[in-house]
Every structure is written in C-alpha cells, then in structure tokens.
Specification:
Elements: E1 5-9, H1 21-33, E2 37-41, E3 55-58, E4 61-64, H2 66-75, H3 86-113, H4 115-127, H5 138-154, H6 162-184, H7 197-211, H8 218-223, H9 227-240, E5 244-245, E6 250-251, H10 258-262
Parallel strand pairs: 1-2
Antiparallel strand pairs: 1-3, 3-4, 5-6
Helix pairs in contact: 1-2, 1-7, 3-4, 3-5, 3-6, 3-7, 4-5, 7-9
Length: 291
C-alpha cells in the first residue's frame, strides 16, 4: 500500500483552489497524473516544515519546491509525461524556463509590487489569513522579497530605474503570453489531448492572472485578448478541480480509478468530455514562483 501524501499550500479564492502559483502547479500536476494527495491550506509559510509553500509530506519525507515535488511523484509512478517523446520533454523544459524568465517577474510585480493591487487586494487577502501579529509583518516581507527578486534578475544595465524595469517586464510578459497562445493554438493542451507537466506550470502561472480581481489589470487585459489561453484555464478548473471545503482545511480528493492503480506506470488522465471553445487561436524547471 502506497504511503499517504499530504500537500500543504496557500488557500484559494476567485474560483481558484489556490492563489499561489507554485501550489496551483503541484495541485494541477497531481490531478493530471492521478496522484492521491490530501491538500490542506496553511496560513503562513513559517508553519511549513521547511519554510516554503507548497510542501509535500509522505511519512518521514518532506519535500518543497514544485520541481522536486513533481520529481518525487514521478518516482511514485504518477507520471503526467508518460506519453511524451524526448523532443517534447526538451520543449517542456524550454517553455518552463521561458515562463520563469519572461512571465514570473510581471506576475510578482502584479501581486506584490504594484501599489494599488498590493494595497487593495494582495495585502488584505494574505493578512486576513495569517494570524496576528504575523499578519502585520509577513505580507510586507513578501512584498519586499518580490521587489528584490525582480531587481536582482532584471534591474541591471541598461535598465537603471524602477520605471524602466517595470516597462520591460510587462513587455516581456506579454510577449511570453503571445508565444504560449501561438504554441497552444486550437489544441486542448500543449501536447494534444493529454495534460502534462507543461500544462500544470502554465496553468499555475496563468490562472491567478486570469481570475484575481485587481484594480490594475494590465497583464490580465492582455491575457483576456488570447481566448485560447483563457479557455485552457477554464477547462482545467471546470474538469479537474472539484473542491470540497472543510474548516479549517481544504481537502481535495485526487483519486485514481482501479485501472490506473493496477498499471505499473500510471499514465496521465485524459480529458475526454470537452469540446474546444470557438475563437481559439493558433498558438530550467522552476524552483520558486513566489517571493
């Protein structure tokens, strides 16, 4: 009998099972691969065994960071990339690196640095879920870490001012979204009709941008001009996430059918009931997606 696996992550809102991109990535991959996780919300990262969220616990094994968690699940034979070719595997790594380089800085800025978004949405949302007195400190710490990360990776010459950095990261993010839209095209997922690791990472990045109601929506407005990416997010939310909420934990049952249990290498689940929405367009593993 397989050891139980429990994933601790930030909670959700706006129709998302989690607002945290890293958590969404792991949750989506578990859904795609059929990994039987129990998912519990956690209200501050200091409660996590390694200080990072999400964190996976299986008996005496504690793993954080999405890439490491996904590798662990693959070793347990929960492999969403079961049918990929070597070239598709290489493409997966290349697109994940693109997400980290081009989209992540703008995602961090939208949530944690843009003053109006942070003051009216991000800070109140996280503060309401973190116990006092940490609620007075942690959101600000996360905001400062996000800004430091953006400036560390994108603040060198020739971009000397924060205004120049902001303009560039949003140009890069929009270019990345355009490339993703072109790559997806009219397909259901990035490699056909079966979701894979790349779909999990893209969903983890895009869904918060798409769904969270911010007053400043520069990136969201651009994403909504790419209907195939919006359909991609909606399809995954509709068909893979069935939430059962209990207090204080959010429990998500990710069960496999008997045929998958008997397989020596569990193939990924296929989404067989969806039809493509009209108007679709042609179309280094991440270690952290949050500050």
């Amino acid at each position: 009998m397989a050891a139980p696996m429990e994933l601790s992550c930030w909670g959700g809102d706006w129709g998302l099972p989690s607002l945290h991109p890293e958590s969404l990535t792991v949750m989506a991959y578990a859904k795609f691969s059929g990994a039987p996780l129990t998912v519990n919300t956690i209200n501050n990262s200091w409660r996590a065994p390694k200080g990072d969220i999400p964190v996976l616990i299986s008996e005496d094994i504690v793993i954080s960071q999405p890439a490491k968690i996904l590798n662990f699940l693959r070793k347990q034979k929960y492999n969403a990339d079961y049918e990929l070719s070597a070239k598709q595997g290489a493409d997966t790594l290349a697109y994940i690196a693109l997400l980290e380089e081009k989209l992540l800085p703008a995602l961090l800025h939208t949530f944690w640095v843009e003053a109006e978004n942070y003051g009216s949405v991000t800070k109140p949302w996280f503060a309401s879920r973190i116990p006092f007195p940490l609620s007075l400190y942690l959101p600000g710490k996360m905001s400062r870490e996000a800004l430091s990360r953006i400036l560390l990776t994108r603040g060198g010459p020739p971009l000397y001012s924060l205004t120049e950095v902001e303009a560039q990261i949003y140009r890069d993010a929009k270019e990345c979204l355009n490339l993703l839209s072109k790559r997806l095209g009219t397909s259901q997922f990035f490699f056909g009709d079966t979701p894979t690791t790349l779909d999990a990472f893209v969903f983890g990045f895009l869904a918060p941008i798409y769904k969270v109601c911010f007053p400043r929506v520069q990136l969201q407005e651009h994403l909504k001009q790419l209907p195939n990416l919006c359909r991609f997010c909606d399809d995954i939310l509709t068909c893979y996430f069935r939430l059962t909420v209990s207090d204080p934990a959010l429990i998500i049952s990710l069960q496999m059918d008997d045929n998958l249990r008997k397989s020596p290498q569990h193939p990924p689940r296929k989404l067989t009931t969806l039809k493509l929405a009209a108007g679709g367009e042609q179309s280094s593993p991440l270690n952290r997606l949050s500050p």
